[in-house]
Write a structure and sequence with these properties.
By secondary structure, this protein is mainly β. Helix content is 0%, strand content 57%. β5 (45-51) and β6 (54-60) form a beta hairpin.
Length: 124
């Protein structure tokens, strides 16, 4: 699966692989350059999405938990953020619904799951 996303002025592709590692590549003017590899055995779906100022990447797998990564601007790469328990996801879809942000995760083996995006301020 190939997915496109932008962070500011930079353009990226997500390249998922069922066997082997998935990749994130950045457009460098004349070609795409590998930026990051992500372990992804059994991955059928890799979906970048943004919520407000945050850029995320959901990487689903038939054999393990779905991993959600968060883009770190300073490092110019995704870092592991959270795991979701989705059995054999086949897609992820971000849906802004009124005052909530939802991530839908249809599954090949189970029911479609809906996750709500929540930001918790731990700075106190």
């Amino acid at each position: 699966m190939v997915k496109y996303f932008r962070v500011k002025r930079d353009q990226f592709l997500c390249l998922s692989r069922y066997i082997g590692d998935s990749k994130v590549v950045r457009w460098e003017g004349q070609r795409f350059v590998e930026l990051q590899t992500l372990p992804s055995r059994g991955s059928m779906v890799m979906q970048p999405f943004s919520v407000e100022q945050r850029q995320y990447l959901a990487l689903g797998s038939d054999f393990s938990f779905t991993h959600v990564y968060l883009w770190e601007e300073e490092k110019q790469k995704f870092v592991k953020f959270q795991e979701l328990s989705v059995q054999a996801p086949r897609a992820f879809r971000y849906v802004p619904a009124a005052d909530v942000q939802l991530l839908l995760a249809p599954s090949f083996k189970a029911n479609t799951l809906v996750y709500r995006h929540v930001v918790v301020d731990l700075s106190l």
